[in-house]
Amino acid sequence: MRIPLSWLREYAPVPADATAEDVMAALVKVGLEEEGVHRPTDELTGPIVVGQVLSMEPETHSNGKTVNWCQVRVVPEGQTQTLTGKGIEESGVQGIICGAHNFAPGDKVVVTLPGAVLPGGFAITARKTYGHKSAGMIASVRELGIGDDHDGILVLSTLGLDPELGSDAMELLGLYDEAAEVNVTPDRGYALSMRGIAREYCHATGETFDDFVLDLAAKAPAANAGGLPVTLTDSAPIHGKDGCTRFVTRQVTGVNAAAPVPTWMSSRLRLAGVRSISLPVDISNYVMLETGQPLHFYDADKLDGGITVRRAQAGEKLTTLDEKVRELHPEDLLITDSTGPIGLAGVMGGASTEVGTETTNILIEAARFDEVSIARTSRRHKLSSDASKRFERGVDPELQAAAAQRAVDLLVELASATVEEGVTDTGSTVEPTVIDLPADYTAGRIGIDYTEAQITESLEQIGAQVERTETGYRVTAPSWRPDLTDKEHLTEEIARLVGYDLIPSTLPVAPPGQGLSTEQLLRRRALNALAASGLTEVSAYPFVSEDDNNLWASPVAGETVKSIRLANPIASQQGWMRRSLLPGLTEVLKRNLSRGFKNLAIYETGHVFIPGAQHGSSQIPGLGVRPSDEVLADLNAGIPDQPRHIAGLFCGLVHEETPGAVPHSLDWRDALDSATLVADVIGVKLEVVKGEHQAFHPGRTAALTLADGTVIGYAGELHPKLLAELDMPERTAAFELNFSALLNGRGGPTIATGISGYPATNQDVALIVDADVPAKAVAAALAEGAGDLLEDVRVFDDYRGAGIDEGKKSLAFALRFRATDRTLTADEASAARSSGVAVAADRFGAVQR
């Protein structure tokens, strides 16, 4: 909300020397948030004066452009020029080149003299152009920064002005005014008006607020038979409330809609962030900003019959003031006449009854619409307006007649209108909210023993009626504060007005002996290990497409996995919650590749979302009451499983090529190493077996399992066809682990074994087995047979070819033996090796080569 200070001073005792910063500092004390200062003089400095065109001589130049060589008087005739500066003539007549043609000799205009600076840092100097010395500029509203019109210069007579020559044009146009901007929270919609801001300023400064709306309400006539017939009907109330609870109409005739907008009004609207359009439209906006009540003006001659407020019917359309044809929804609340819809209630009027410069008779509407209904309509049509912004937050139900009266007064004063006697005021009365506030409740919540006087005075300041009871206070909330519904809200108001600075601050004492949980420690250990090994952590969006979930979350091609669909996705192609981290990582990888990075090793940790048998819950509990155990159980049952995953992607080289070091390409081995590293640092032994996954290379994929055979992830190179489709490097590797499952498989703490100080004995053995026997299984058999003396077994060769029968393969293993209490002899090592070979032979038919 932007607050022109000249406007605020009409309704609050703001000191004459107070700045926008001073006003914001006061409003911050009562809970509003400062946003900024709008001060035209920050970008616009003089000398800028009123001048009169004495003569203008058109000249067409070689570039085809016709300009006017003008003589402009900038001081009253017969007076000496008081302004001094390089290029300012002492005679008071300036020679100025002007490219505009919308003025004539005798017109009074705004002249920016040498030394002036216009918005954008444009300094005015005397310079030679088009064969003349031009000492100044005749300004347009755009050049002055007070409008968008650039069709010509600003002729002051079009504003109804006839100022003295040489007078300060900046003062004339209200450019010395300034505005403070504050952020108004959604629960305090009353502050989206000068009335509300003036009240808050008085709260902050301890002054008494004199509500000007009460005088307007007293002046407004009562409803009578001469008013326009208005019918309020609601066939589909939202959350049990009628869409319109009050509708006031007034009518004026003989309006001069083309009359100029007074500069005091246009300058205030401009500082408040509203563009000046025409006198009737500006009056409507002015009253809305002043009182907080949105108004709508209809060209009364374009109305057909009375007005009906109702919900939209199937197939109805409306062309709104922005010239867009809108398909209406049955929940949309409409303003209609006998021809059909003429306005989208509380959001935007219709083009068919728009007020224009030819309008002479105006019907004024001041209504009160339901907050939820207007909010839904505004969002449904993606149409936000100043009116809908206020209706969504709640408009004072007692304000309509007063705001309509203010609009009538301004139309009579500024547009020569005549008031019609007919007045319509229909709708239901809104009962005030009555709240019981226990005497000790505020002190218990805030920590200050407020006196009875502080409690009573604070609540009366906001406009509430306070009655003392045996147990505390009975408070009737003011009509303009729909946010006050319970004792907590009243407590907040008391704390706010007495002063937040009085609330004691006590830092909580951290409980001893607390730190990271075991899961947090292990997760941090795993992530640090990946980072230390050269990977870079990234964070991707958790929203993916349904095809991505089907591809990455299931190893079987063509299988559809259950996923959670978003009700309001940021993009239609990202409408599902992820079941795998790899879709997001591929997007991050592709983005970095497109920026010129070639060697990439990235990883991410995060939750994936797996729906269960129940999706959501129909038992949504109300506010302020603890749900029952049954309701809580149902709510928990509807929450999807959210295990934590860790995943990584690799492409390019392990490092840049350097002299003496030829790098290898990142491949399946790097992905597998990273996956096993995660398991190793948290103390879990991963079993690596040959795996198959539709997104991975059929011959370069490992399934990662726990000791019980549960598959918790995959590692390997991605499928070449998939990489081609995704436009990714031909050799890209990846891994993904269910980190939650990995933690669950950890078991007890890892016990470190002692290190033997005796030397090891190394021996090799080559075994011929069937080609389909996994090397890992043969190694396990050797380890089992060799017993405790075998410290390590590693396969180092897999040979299939000459000398080996078809369907067979030769596996060579390096065996390391060591005893903890002595130096092993060669015979002891050989005996242990033979025992291992015997088990392999028995289990797999292995033959020593």
From TrEMBL:
<dbReference type="InterPro" id="IPR036690">
    <property type="entry name" value="Fdx_antiC-bd_sf"/>
</dbReference>
<comment type="similarity">
    <text>Belongs to the phenylalanyl-tRNA synthetase beta subunit family. Type 1 subfamily.</text>
</comment>
<keyword id="KW-0820">tRNA-binding</keyword>
<comment type="subunit">
    <text>Tetramer of two alpha and two beta subunits.</text>
</comment>
<keyword id="KW-0694">RNA-binding</keyword>
<keyword id="KW-0460">Magnesium</keyword>
<feature type="binding site">
    <location>
        <position position="493"/>
    </location>
    <ligand>
        <name>Mg(2+)</name>
    </ligand>
</feature>
<protein>
    <recommendedName>
        <fullName>Phenylalanine--tRNA ligase beta subunit</fullName>
        <ecNumber>6.1.1.20</ecNumber>
    </recommendedName>
</protein>
<dbReference type="GO" id="GO:0016874">
    <property type="term" value="F:ligase activity"/>
</dbReference>
<dbReference type="Pfam" id="PF03484">
    <property type="entry name" value="B5"/>
</dbReference>
<dbReference type="InterPro" id="IPR009061">
    <property type="entry name" value="DNA-bd_dom_put_sf"/>
</dbReference>
<dbReference type="InterPro" id="IPR005121">
    <property type="entry name" value="Fdx_antiC-bd"/>
</dbReference>
<feature type="binding site">
    <location>
        <position position="483"/>
    </location>
    <ligand>
        <name>Mg(2+)</name>
    </ligand>
</feature>
<feature type="domain" description="FDX-ACB">
    <location>
        <begin position="756"/>
        <end position="849"/>
    </location>
</feature>
<dbReference type="InterPro" id="IPR005146">
    <property type="entry name" value="B3/B4_tRNA-bd"/>
</dbReference>
<keyword id="KW-0030">Aminoacyl-tRNA synthetase</keyword>
<dbReference type="Pfam" id="PF17759">
    <property type="entry name" value="tRNA_synthFbeta"/>
</dbReference>
<keyword id="KW-0963">Cytoplasm</keyword>
<dbReference type="Pfam" id="PF03483">
    <property type="entry name" value="B3_4"/>
</dbReference>
<keyword id="KW-0648">Protein biosynthesis</keyword>
<dbReference type="InterPro" id="IPR004532">
    <property type="entry name" value="Phe-tRNA-ligase_IIc_bsu_bact"/>
</dbReference>
<keyword id="KW-0067">ATP-binding</keyword>
<feature type="domain" description="B5">
    <location>
        <begin position="430"/>
        <end position="505"/>
    </location>
</feature>
<dbReference type="InterPro" id="IPR005147">
    <property type="entry name" value="tRNA_synthase_B5-dom"/>
</dbReference>
<dbReference type="InterPro" id="IPR045864">
    <property type="entry name" value="aa-tRNA-synth_II/BPL/LPL"/>
</dbReference>
<dbReference type="InterPro" id="IPR045060">
    <property type="entry name" value="Phe-tRNA-ligase_IIc_bsu"/>
</dbReference>
<keyword id="KW-0547">Nucleotide-binding</keyword>
<dbReference type="InterPro" id="IPR033714">
    <property type="entry name" value="tRNA_bind_bactPheRS"/>
</dbReference>
<dbReference type="InterPro" id="IPR020825">
    <property type="entry name" value="Phe-tRNA_synthase-like_B3/B4"/>
</dbReference>
<feature type="binding site">
    <location>
        <position position="492"/>
    </location>
    <ligand>
        <name>Mg(2+)</name>
    </ligand>
</feature>
<feature type="domain" description="TRNA-binding">
    <location>
        <begin position="42"/>
        <end position="170"/>
    </location>
</feature>
<keyword id="KW-0436">Ligase</keyword>
<dbReference type="Pfam" id="PF03147">
    <property type="entry name" value="FDX-ACB"/>
</dbReference>
<keyword id="KW-0479">Metal-binding</keyword>
<dbReference type="InterPro" id="IPR041616">
    <property type="entry name" value="PheRS_beta_core"/>
</dbReference>
<dbReference type="InterPro" id="IPR002547">
    <property type="entry name" value="tRNA-bd_dom"/>
</dbReference>
<dbReference type="InterPro" id="IPR012340">
    <property type="entry name" value="NA-bd_OB-fold"/>
</dbReference>
